[in-house]
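Let's practice the habit of predicting before peeking. Look at the sequence and jot down your guess about where helices and strands might fall. Then scroll down.
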Amino acid sequence: MLARVAIFLFPIRLILAQDTNPHTSPVDIEHGRRLFDARCAGCHGKDGSGGRGTNLAQPDLPRSSNDASLYRVIRRGIPGTEMPSQNLATDREIWQMAAYVRSLGQRPAEAVAGDAMHGALIFKGKGGCRQCHTAGLEGGRMGPVLNGVGARRGAAYLRQTLLDPESRVPLAFGFYDVVTRKGQRVRGIRVNEDTQSIQLRDLSDQVHSFWKDELSEIKRLAGKTPMPSYKSVLSEAEVSDVIAYLVSLKEVR
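Done guessing? Here is the structure:
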């Protein structure tokens, strides 16, 4: 009877072992850091504080609440995003990268100078950010929704975006310039596209739909964005205040 119980328990232990990272020693974490620097830092930042990819230097990762889910995200990537799979990595390498990512969340939180409350006023007023971006329950639809941006992006990334937005244009971002055969020109963000049609949202938040055979020109403005630089619009202190406000937006609504 005991032998029979042992037979049934053995595969269960194997399944549970995969739910917990088996490679978390200092040597594993250091090897995970080297792997991360080579394969992940280009998007997530050298210290994991965010870039084109999500800020990983935080204790709670929305898509990876436990070791098993973090392993799956690294191994499989995230379909529909710029997060690639790591199909050529060994299981041990995936676990080592996961261990290093977890260690990032144990570091002290990034110190952010600035007044978040004043930054909220600038965001809504002088900065004109709400014309294009939604934060909370209000805002435009031209730019990305910023609810939860403080959990996805680090302060350094946000500063760079405010001062030099064209250096931070996501690969999936579609900014287009189209001209109809009748001479109408429309520039806007791609809302949808298929083989026969394309829909754009212009700067006034109006959506335009075109059949492609009625267009004389369809041009993607690669590396371009309608977002202006705030270098000459806001003072250094005001930029810091806006960043403090954005970093405070942790909750996804």
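How did you do? The first strand starts at residue 134 and ends at 135.
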